[in-house]
Amino acid sequence: MAEPSPITVRPARREDVAAIVRLLADDDLGAGREVVSDPPLPAYGEAFDKLAANPRSLLVAAEDAGGVVVGALQLTFIPGLSNQGAELALVSAVRISSSLRNHGLGQQMMDWAMDEARRRGCKYMELFTHLSRVEAQRFYKRLGFAKSHAGMRREL
Asked: What is the dihedral of CA 78, 24, 31, 43, to 10 degrees?
């Protein structure tokens, strides 16, 4: 594999919302649940504002050398009593532009996320990935993640 292109991982800004929504919709699963529009739906801006106001949530954007948002992920820091009061980092909504997948950018983003979680004193990092995202599951296994829980979900 060629050397991955450098990216800059930084806190997302409100002006990144449209690009992040496009990334979220950039596969069959996401296309069925996200709405790409210009401007983005107000619900996306409202969600961004809630994330930005929460010190235990961090939405990040990865941009290429030209300043184009090519990836995003969300980190949520969860205090806990279990495991001797261990803090947990939950990583979710990890996306890399489909045209740039398999070039090392996802690993750069995940390395950044794990470093940030360690910096904040987290003992564990967990993630959710949809069962249909088989390639993503292989990727996370290569990074050292292992199946450890059975997740369940219910619409409210």
From this structure: 70
- For 44-53, the pLDDT digits (tens) are 999 999 999 9
- For the entire predicted model, the pTM comes to 0.88
Range of the domain at 117: 8-142
Beta strands in 1-156 (DSSP E): 8-11, 57-63, 69-78, 87-96, 122-127
Query: Is 75 a domain residue?
Result: yes
* Domains in the chain, number: 1
For 58-91, what is each residue's pLDDT tens digit? Answer: 999 999 999 999 999 999 999 999 999 999 999 9
